[in-house]
Structure formats: structure tokens, C-alpha cells
Design a protein that fits this description.
The protein has 2 helices and 17 strands. By secondary structure, the protein is mostly beta strands. The longest helix is centred in the N-terminal third of the chain and has 8 residues.
Length: 344
């Protein structure tokens, strides 16, 4: 699924709430004939990437869900409702770390994904809208506040270039998982609540674009193991109302992700997830802030399929290295409902 970048953001790009992701849950939920592969029924306990402070790079800061680029039947729809909590030293805009800040983010996300075929390849589109509450204080000052409202919305278009033929639910019953190569583009729109005169904001007041290429490889007895690697980069437009009338510009924020997952009981799967991001220096009115980032996040996810259409996902992530990036720790719980022709 698309990143569907999981429901909370982690620290990697400037900051924002992102979500990614439908695919991973989709596969486990898809039920077809009695021949269904175990992979179609597995679950995932997903460690969603920390979704803390940063700019609009939706979920850029966090991991994408494992199995995002697995093949999935066409005609499938997925609705996800997620809750995430993150404790960090940054506001929703992770491009700005606040020294001494202790902030708590409670975020709910509604996400919709649709899978279809184009020239015989699997393609999917996704849209998500976060609603969040952010509160906290800054040590050594009298600054304390909170804000509640909508965060920046995000949109994803993705496709499998290799190993992902467009198959119906019936055809998918005979599909053997294989190595896939996929690409996606995540766009985050400045639709969130933003006040240029406030330190705490849920919106980033700028657009962000994150292209990504991914390789997924199942292996081992019964192909119960899967290794995935994603390479992406966040690009940002300028925030022309930063701290009132200043102009905030951010350099590209590249990132690399690695996911190793194992399927068990034919109805669940668990993964270990990592993300490394670097660069992304910011400039205020043309002045370099000398704050290039070096971030390394470690997380874990677990996905459990309740039946052919419903699944639960649990995620945890922590920033182990956070140079000029958010020192974040968080968890998320997600519920996924899938439907479409062939489901029963």
C-alpha cells in the first residue's frame, strides 16, 4: 500500500503528519478461494515511523509500512482509521527543533486507498487527512500552549513496475509472490491549521513532494520472510509566512528505509523497521541555519488479520540518532477495513 506512510510521522523531513500504507494490510485481508496463499492472510504488527515534528513532508519523517509494495488484487478498496501518540522535542514541523521543548502529539488519521490496473500493472492511489492535538512547553521559559485541528492532507500515486501484474481477487488466489520493484509519489498539501505568529502549528504552510523507489524480495521456506528497501527524497516549497513575514526554505531531505518481516500463523506478520535520513538544512531569509539533519529511527510493527476484511496493526518507533532532528518516541494503533469485488 502506499506508504500510506503510516499514520504518524517520524523525523526525517521537515515535518508533518503523514500516513502511510494500505497495501500491507490489504494483502493479509484479501480472502479468495480455498487456495489462498498464506501470505494473503497474514497480519502485520507494524511499527509506524515516528510522526512528529516537521514540515509538510507528510509522513516523510516516518517509515512507510512494510509490504507497501507487495502485489494486491485490483478492485480492492481500503479504509484505515488510525491513532498515534508521539513525544518529541519538536513541533509538527520537524525542520525546527525547539531546545528544551517537551511536546506531545495525539493524532487521528482517516485514510482511503484504491487499487486498480493500468497497462496490466498494479497501480494505487491514496488520500489521508489527519486530525491532531499538540501541547507542550519549553523548559526555562514561560512558553506553554496547545492546539487542536486538522493537519496537512497527503496524496499518493504508486505503481509496481516489476513483479506486480494486475490480477483480480480470483486470479490472485494462484499468484506466487515474487520480487517487486515499485515507485510512488507522495504529495502533501498545506491544508492544515497554521498561524504564522504561533510556535505550535499543525500545518506547515508549504507543499512537499516525495518520490520513492522500492524493492521487495520474499525468501525462505514458504516465502515467509521478506526484505524490503526504499529510497526516497523530500522536496519542499518555501514557507513565505514563517514566524510572521520571514521566508523558510529547506533543502532536499533524502532517506533510506529497510524492513525485514516474517509471516506466521497465516494470519499475522511482524517486522523490524529502520530509517535513515540526512541533509535537509533550512534557510531563513536566505541565511543558512547550519542544521543539516542526521536521523536514524528503529521501529517494529505487528499486523493481525481478524478475517478477510478486517485487521489491526500495532506500531512502535524511536529515534536513536537525532542530530538536528526530533528526538521522538511514539506508537500507533490502526484498524483497516477492505472491500471490493470478490471479497466475502
Amino acid at each position: 500500500m502506499s506508504a500510506r506512510e503510516s499514520s504518524w510521522q517520524g523525523g526525517n523531513t521537515p515535518s508533518k503528519v503523514c500516513k502511510s500504507k494500505a497495501q500491507e494490510r490489504l494483502l493479509p485481508l484479501i480472502m479468495g478461494s480455498a487456495k489462498l496463499l498464506p501470505m494473503c492472510k497474514r497480519l502485520l504488527f507494524a511499527c509506524f515511523a515516528l510522526a512528529v515534528v516537521r514540515a509538510p513532508d507528510q509522513a516523510c519523517a516516518q517509515f512507510k509500512d512494510p509490504h507497501t509494495y507487495d502485489n494486491t488484487p485490483v478492485g480492492v478498496n481500503q479504509l484505515e482509521i488510525a491513532y498515534a501518540f508521539v513525544h518529541s522535542d519538536a513541533s509538527i514541523d520537524t525542520s525546527l527543533i525547539v531546545a528544551g521543548a517537551k511536546l506531545n502529539l495525539n493524532q487521528g488519521t482517516i485514510d482511503y486507498t484504491r487499487y486498480f490496473g493500468v497497462v496490466h500493472r498494479l497501480v494505487w492511489v491514496e488520500a489521508s487527512v489527519p486530525l491532531a492535538g499538540l501541547d507542550g512547553s519549553v523548559s526555562g521559559t514561560n512558553i506553554h500552549g496547545s492546539i487542536t485541528g486538522a493537519g496537512d492532507s497527503s496524496y499518493v500515486v504508486a505503481a509496481l513496475l516489476k513483479g506486480g501484474p494486475a490480477l483480480s481477487v480470483a486470479q490472485f488466489a494462484d499468484y506466487t509472490p515474487k520480487t517487486t520493484v515499485g515507485v510512488s509519489l507522495t504529495i502533501t498539501a498545506p491544508t492544515g491549521l497554521y498561524n504564522p505568529n504561533k510556535i505550535l502549528n499543525l500545518g506547515s504552510h508549504r507543499w512537499s513532494f516525495k518520490p520513492e523507489i522500492a524493492v521487495s524480495h520474499p525468501f525462505g521456506p514458504g516465502q515467509k520472510w521478506e526484505f524490503e528497501t526504499y529510497a526516497n527524497a523530500g522536496f519542499y516549497t518555501d514557507n513565505t509566512s514563517y514566524h510572521g513575514a520571514e521566508i523558510l526554505r529547506q533543502e532536499t531531505l533524502p532517506g533510506l528505509e529497510g524492513h525485514l518481516s516474517y509471516s506466521f500463523l497465516n494470519s499475522a506478520w511482524a517486522s523490524v523497521d529502520t530509517r535513515y535520513s540526512f541533509r535537509g538544512s533550512t534557510f531563513v531569509n536566505g541565511v543558512n541555519q547550519n542544521n543539516a539533519q542526521q536521523n536514524f529511527i528503529l521501529g517494529s510493527e505487528v499486523n493481525v488479520s481478524l478475517n478477510s476484511q478486517n485487521s489491526l496493526i500495532f506500531e512502535f518507533a524511536k529515534a536513536l540518532v537525532h542530530q538536528n532532528g526530533p528526538a521522538s518516541t511514539g506508537f500507533a494503533v490502526k484498524y483497516n477495513y477492505s472491500w471490493g469485488k470478490g471479497y466475502r
